[in-house]
Amino acid sequence: MELKQVIIAHKANHAQSKAWAETCAKQLEARQCKVLMGPSGFKDNPYPVFLASASEKIDLAIVLGGDGTVLAAARHLAAEGIPILAVNVGGHLGFLTEPFEVFQDTETVWDRLQGDRYAVEKRMMLTARLYEGDKNSPRVASDRFYALNEMCVKPASIDRMPTSILEVEVDGEMIDQYQGDGLLVATPTGSTCYTASASGPIIHPGMEAIAVTPICPLSLSSRPIVIPPASMVNIWPLGDYELNTKLWMDGALATSIWPGQWVGVTKSEHFAKFIILRETYSFYQTLREKLQWAGARFPYDGNRHN
């Protein structure tokens, strides 16, 4: 990998993340690399400025933070094909990040990257748009939105907690009318996040599939369903005349859904690309450690227990 121009995004309002970003910037600039650096957070989005300011191809994005910081990076950089080195600095669970221990010797990391001693993991993403008009000849009514974890359709009101009735159609066939707190359409990556909290399935990120999961449905017969990655998921909010229903992408607000509009969700043509530095990366180990599965009661060292 060439390191001629690099993005460094650090977690906003986190001193340790910013300090490490500044250290990385100095080291890379000493290697004749141009660095674009800035904070990323709920109120800070540096990526449009990064992309507009780039004088040449961006070789790498270094993201120092937690999973939320990484999700924002993926939504903006996947379409540009920019690989992401995500490191857990100030994060909590860190499902999407490399552990800090493999990154703290940063000079060695730069040598590894320039010597192509790393792996690249591709993660499936979703794209969504609003549509309106006739179902058989719909008009596009919004920009295109991207998500690495999930698209979420649910009501949001300042002074009350309304439920929703969402009619879901997959590839032109109606599946169900879900009444409850909303609906999640998730990637395998997102299956360990909000979808898992809503009792959805956990899907290995090496697969390509889409999980459709109702949030707190009022019917015990409403169940999650896993569908092929090429499926088209259409979601109609029924009975919402007050502009309560909204579309969310990875927990960030995408847009409000006006009466008469619906959401179309498909697999994105773009993949998020993550740099893997660990030599023994394992999704199952991540599940054991982050979700405290096997090993929480009895230590597991890779050998079968009697």
From TrEMBL:
Function: Involved in the regulation of the intracellular balance of NAD and NADP, and is a key enzyme in the biosynthesis of NADP. Catalyzes specifically the phosphorylation on 2'-hydroxyl of the adenosine moiety of NAD to yield NADP.
Lineage: superkingdom: Bacteria
Provenance organism: Pannus brasiliensis CCIBt3594
CC cofactor: a divalent metal cation
Name the record gives this protein: NAD kinase
Cross-referenced InterPro entries: ATP-NAD_kinase_N, ATP-NAD_kinase_PpnK-typ_C, NAD/diacylglycerol_kinase_sf, NADK
Main location as per UniProt: cytoplasm
Keywords: ATP-binding, Cytoplasm, Kinase, NAD, NADP, Nucleotide-binding, Transferase
Gene Ontology CC: cytoplasm
Keyword Oxidoreductase found: no
GO term, biological process aspect, one: NADP+ biosynthetic process
Family: Belongs to the NAD kinase family.
Classification via Gene3D superfamilies: Probable inorganic polyphosphate/atp-NAD kinase, domain 1, Probable inorganic polyphosphate/atp-NAD kinase, domain 2
Localization (cell): Cytoplasm
Catalytic activity: NAD(+) + ATP = ADP + NADP(+) + H(+)
Cross-referenced Pfam families: NAD_kinase, NAD_kinase_C
EC number(s) given by UniProt: 2.7.1.23
Residues binding NAD(+): D67, G68, N149, E150, R160, D181, T192, C193, Y194, T195, A196, S197
